[in-house]
């Protein structure tokens, strides 16, 4: 059991560190939400340039799809490295995926455009389009990696994993359909 827990801890850390790659990919691939700054009564205000744009949903969708892809890949790699299942391994995939998603989210926000939109609008000027900060509106997307990893690993283990021996150590004997052995 100690060996399984140790292996699970290593897997959880390795999966979580994959969050750095997910964060960079999210920052790079996510659509930009265009904003425009204006001065109204000597106060700066910021508007969406395209009020009917779907870029904000695209940001969440990009994170979710990347999380699902990372879940599939990590489950496949973990299954290839360690063909057995087990509770510690499933917990490691779940915790590692969640920590990786949190790391990716925070890294993407940090790499993205400035968080202070009014200051950014002032710096670019009145009427100039600039990108909104990278924001994850659908926090449920943080679970995509873990869910995909657990489900794919479960499927791979069920289809290709080792089988339990027959109860009592007996092998199945073919019968003639009426219960009599064929041999």
| Main beta sheet | 3 strands, antiparallel
Number of H- or I-type helical stretches: 6
Identify the overall geometry: elongated
Structural class: mainly alpha
Radius of gyration: 25 Å
Query: Helical amount among residues, as a percent range?
Result: 55-70%
Number of beta-strand segments: 3
Strand ordering within the main sheet:
2-1-3
Uncertain residue segments: none
| End-to-end C-alpha gap | 43 Å
Q: How much β-strand is present in the residues?
A: 5-15%
Overall pLDDT level: 90
Order of helices and strands: HHEEHHHEH
Please explain how this structure is put together.
The protein is mainly alpha-helical and 183 residues long. It contains six helices and three strands; from the N terminus they run ααββαααβα. It has helices at 2-17, 19-29, 55-81, 87-111, 117-124, 144-160, and strands at 34-40, 43-48, 129-131. It has a three-stranded antiparallel sheet, covered by helices on one side. Strand 1 and strand 2 form a beta hairpin. Helix 1 packs parallel to helix 4 (87-111). The protein is elongated, with a radius of gyration of 25 Å.
